[in-house]
Input
Amino acid sequence: TSLLARRPLLSMRVTLRNTPQVAFSSWQDTVGKKLEEAKPMLSQGALYGGGGVMLFGLTKGTYNIFTGFLSMTPYDMGYYGFIAGFCTAGLLGTSSLAARRAIQIYPNELYNETLSLIRNDTNSCEILGGELGGHIESAGLRAYKIDGGTISVVNRSLQWVPPRCQMIFDVKGELYDALATVEAVKTGGKMTLSFVGLDVMNSKQQRVHVLGDESKHETHHDLRSLLNFKAEHMRP
Output
């Protein structure tokens, strides 16, 4: 009988304990639904508020600049005008130099990069007789042709033609000499080697393909023809 009398009391205690949790969860669900419904209005209000603050800042800054100019003396205007002109000229000069370097190929840079590549090519070193990483030199005798770097009509439309440099120069190993042929294109401000090859001066007349498309190996014939044309038509 005592257990039966206690059961209603236990059920009442469990019900009282669960009542605050149920109320809190229902309140939380209600608040979450209201926030979800108010999200578009809140985002729109934040956008308008941010735009208003930005507009106020721009207006305030413009007003301060104009009032500052009006209150300046002729000496101050000349001083700050000179500084502004000097900074503008320096910025324009730097930008022009950077743009010029981005669209121009420098033969000396191409020559040094190609010679370093040949010196570190295993096949070239074995044929010319030098050890890997050295003993291949050049007398610096070279000829090159630069084209591109202009806007031209390609397929009935104006397009930018990237600058290209074709070069031949001599290399000397411990056993044989060779004629190096290289072609490079500059795109996006970066020079890329599209072909590097060697014509070895031996009885076999070997050709060494170092890099790129082998079909471009005939470039050295065009450059030799250009050199012969200049030599034949040169006036004393």
